[in-house]
Amino acid sequence: MQIRVEQPFSLYADVDVTYDGRAASTLERGNYLIVHKSDGTLLVMGGDKYKPRNYQAPGAILKLHNNQLVSTRKDERINIILHNIISYTEHHDWSVARTKVTKTEAELRDKIAASIKDYIPNAIEVFVEFQTPVGNVDILVIDANNVYCVIEVKRGRASLAACSQIRRYTEYFNEIGRQVKGYIASPQISKNALKHAGGHNIAWLKADHSI
Amino acid sequence: MQIRVEQPFSLYADVDVTYDGRAASTLERGNYLIVHKSDGTLLVMGGDKYKPRNYQAPGAILKLHNNQLVSTRKDERINIILHNIISYTEHHDWSVARTKVTKTEAELRDKIAASIKDYIPNAIEVFVEFQTPVGNVDILVIDANNVYCVIEVKRGRASLAACSQIRRYTEYFNEIGRQVKGYIASPQISKNALKHAGGHNIAWLKADHSI
DNA sequence: AGTTCAGTGATGCGT
DNA sequence: ACGCATCGCTGAACT
């Protein structure tokens, strides 16, 4: 069957693939699964791992020239040389429904905010996604001593990057003359992050979805 | 053709999908492309976008019970109810070759380090991936005035996170009694990051792969 | 369009 | 195994 570049399809073929754009790459000749979607998305998948070997984001344009598939999008281009087509299947009525996800960071954040007294007993005011010039604070608490408690929520294991992020916020509140304390709320935390936190007025609050 | 769960294959079918694990999700019934790889990877792809609607990472085990595909991996599980199989194709001799990528951040870093005098004219010593307790510095330069120059390299547009990262390093060198200055080296930088950098002794070095 | 951050992030490299 | 930074990250929300 002839490849129709205007149709969504998957193609299993012996190919060579090259890419040039933000970066550049080559992929040695072999059998790969090539998936084309109606929004222009193109995926070149290898026989293992989650990520495609090459891809184009939505909006790409696919063309067929002799034995070459060429996908272009802005300054990016994929070239696929077709040596042998093993199978070709078009996909009609392909669903574009979205996955509904729960147990996200936003949910965890809201749970903590709703039961904030379990974490900061003398809390007076609670703000969620409090805006500052250096980013939004997940939860901002003002306690009975007028201390600004900056809480950064992480759904997985918190690392040094979380400490850096908090310190951008605490520094900001210091600069505008507030008393401040930092908190990381997460199910887990890396050893280095915990150590770094201890030396910089940041406390760890153990928190997960089961609460 | 009957589905063989021990084979790599792609399957286009009318299905219902649910997931539970680190998060949880549901996907409404419809036609999706399901890809199974020999390392256990499972992908449920919708008709648009780059990312799969659901997936299992390498190492998952796939089983078929009546009209249900079940993939399990540690504490994670995907359930696929098969209402109607539209097409099924097995993929033999599927290549697992890796893509060779160039123009990466590491390349840019090495280029800058090799021609450091173009950026910091009075450089005396240059270290690449210099280790500190708060992470590795991309490029550390000691200049003629014994100032420790911390250079953070970004291959794309640098943002506030780059500033935070640098400040972890500069603070460390301050604590051990060094004179220090921060640099971001990148092709582009966000407006907020540039502003934040200006106020915190961080300079921006414009750098890209063309040099 | 630009900026920021979450993600079932994944992936690779180091310890 | 944990810890960390990169990624052609993608995707979404907000400005």
Low-confidence blocks of residues of chain A: none
The radius of gyration of chain A is: 25 Å
Spatial gap, N to C terminus of chain A: 56 Å
Kindly state the mean pLDDT of chain A as a whole number? Answer: 96
Indicate the proportion of strand residues of chain A: over 45%
Shape of chain A: elongated
Order of helices and strands of chain A: EEEEEEEEHEEEEHEEHE
Assembly category: homodimer
The largest sheet of chain A is: 7 strands, antiparallel
Helical percent range of chain A? 10-25%
Task: Report the strand count of chain A.
Answer: 15
Cross-sheet strand order for the largest sheet of chain A: 4-3-2-1-7-6-5
Q: Number of helix segments of chain A? A: 3
SSE inventory with pairings:
Two copies of one chain form a homodimer.
Chain A: E1 9-20, E2 24-36, E3 42-45, E4 54-56, E5 61-65, E6 68-73, E7 76-90, E8 100-102, H1 105-114, E9 123-132, E10 135-143, E11 147-153, E12 157-158, H2 160-175, E13 179-186, E14 188-189, H3 191-198, E15 202-206
Chain A binds a DNA duplex (15 and 15 nucleotides) through residues 19, 21-25, 49-51, 54-55, 57, 76, 101, 103-106, 135-136, 154-157, 159-161, 165, 190-193.
